Amino acid sequence: MIRQYAKKTLRHLSSNKYKTLNYIELDQQAMLANVALIEKQHPGFEVIPVLKSNAYGHGLEQVAGILNKAEGHYLAVDGYFEAARIRDITKKHILVLGYILPENVHLLDLKKCSFVVQDIAGLEAFGLLHKPVNVHLELNTGFNRLGLTPDELPAYLDTLKKYPNLKLEGVMTHLLDADNGASDSYDNHQQQLFDKYVKLIQAADFKPKLLHIAQTAGSPKIKSKYANAIRLGIGTYGINPLGPHDPHYKDLAPLKPVLELKSTIVKVVNLKKGDKVSYNATFTAKKAMRIGVLPLGYYEGVPRELSNNGVFTYKDAELPIVGRVCMNHTMIDLKETGLKVGDVVTIISRDPRKPNSVASLQTDKGLFSYTTLTRLSSIRRKVI
């Protein structure tokens, strides 16, 4: 009885009427513009937005809904459970990139999904279902993480032929050094290998529809003779993975950040000179000052590395973090802003010029953009 009441209460509180203290805004027009940019740069290519890891921290269901308005016919996820969560939301076909245990294959709903199948055991498990399955073959061209080596390819193709219900829909590989601004030599080496083995696959009477080699960083560097699709990961969300020194940096510079994280001041503390703040007393007030307490910390995705070393913003004001970032709280110097309880400040800004943008956190603080985004956890997302 108590458990049922608790579930009912949680459902009631989770409605959009409940005002949250922390929230993420997703700019849907920016996301759609990002996908359109890559499509424009690569006419005739299938651009496949990648929604793995909770859509790079942006929210799997929300992003799937936004991308219904985009051109293209595919989305990609890592695991089958991600596909299951968006099956009824998306209008797109879903490519499952991650490994699936052969013993689990019979449990899958195959509708609307294609699967990257890494080994013969997986192929045989899908083949024995005697149902149509769209398969993508991954080639190991030097990443040495997943994918078939040249020696493994013939047996894999023979197994595909053994099961007429298996359709080779795609062939892929993954570039390992695409964000290297000094040299494209390894990209070129991988693309040459990819083309060599695609030719062999086609000579074996397979006609895969999708041939994809590049992620966001590799998209402006494609030189493959056969590639006709791009897996757009971090670029979907408006982050340029190439450094300013990269000759192709300008190709991706128009990408627009999608996410903004905001929080609400829940307490204002007046400090006297000499007062300490937060764990281990790493901050000491040098004068009387006002600080604000925010109800989010490293659990919600505020990097602990920003303790006494980062800023949040309110309009044009920069508000330094004071003391250690806590599990669920962070304190900031309110300076002369006059901010009070209930006022909203920006934790991560969409404006790449701001010191608390994802780009600035990587450039100035050494925080990996992918980690900054994917660590965002139990925060409500809303689409604007």
Topology:
Blueprint (H helix, E strand, L loop, with lengths): L1 H12 L8 E5 L1 H14 L4 E4 L2 H5 L3 H7 L7 E4 L2 H7 L6 E4 L16 E4 L3 H8 L5 E6 L14 H10 L3 E7 L12 H19 L6 E5 L14 E4 L16 H4 L6 E6 L2 E5 L4 E2 L5 E2 L4 E6 L16 E4 L2 E4 L9 E4 L10 E5 L9 H8 L3 H6 L5 E4 L1
Parallel strand pairs: 1-19, 2-9, 3-4, 4-5, 5-6, 6-7, 7-8, 8-9
Antiparallel strand pairs: 1-10, 10-18, 11-14, 12-13, 14-17, 15-16
Helix pairs in contact: 6-7
Protein architecture, described:
This protein has 384 residues and is of the alpha/beta class. The chain is 26% helix and 22% strand. It contains 11 helices and 19 strands. It has helices at residues 2-13, 28-41, 52-56, 60-66, 80-86, 120-127, 153-162, 185-203, 249-252, 358-365, 369-374, and strands at 22-26, 46-49, 74-77, 93-96, 113-116, 133-138, 166-172, 210-214, 229-232, 259-264, 267-271, 276-277, 283-284, 289-294, 311-314, 317-320, 330-333, 344-348, 380-383. Strand 6, helix 7 (153-162) and strand 7 (166-172) form a beta-alpha-beta unit. Helix 6 packs parallel to helix 7. The protein is elongated and about 80 Å long.
Key attributes of the depicted protein:
384 residues, alpha/beta, eight-stranded parallel β-sheet, four-stranded mixed β-sheet, 26% helix
